[in-house]
From TrEMBL:
The lineage of its organism: Eukaryota, Viridiplantae, Streptophyta, Embryophyta, Tracheophyta. This is Uncharacterized protein. It comes from Rhododendron molle (Chinese azalea). It comes from the Eukaryota.
Amino acid sequence: MTDSWFGTRAQEKSELLVQQFGIDYQTLPAMFRQGSSVFWDKEEPTERYSDGPDGKSRKKVVVEHCNIIEQSFWEAHPNILDEER
């Protein structure tokens, strides 16, 4: 990797990927473009259970390949910042 790789803009990096490695950044799966986010999320109730053993909603670990900077992520997962767990 040369020094010219560092300090470039996103478009220049995309061009370098295509030129040097034949990789089109836009066609890569989201997990490689956006990384992975791991967080707790409320599990949807089913007929089998409605609450956890202590009366609180059950939670599950979720792995998503998404853009956490977008407002839509936080609207879809407001409980991430909820201090009452």
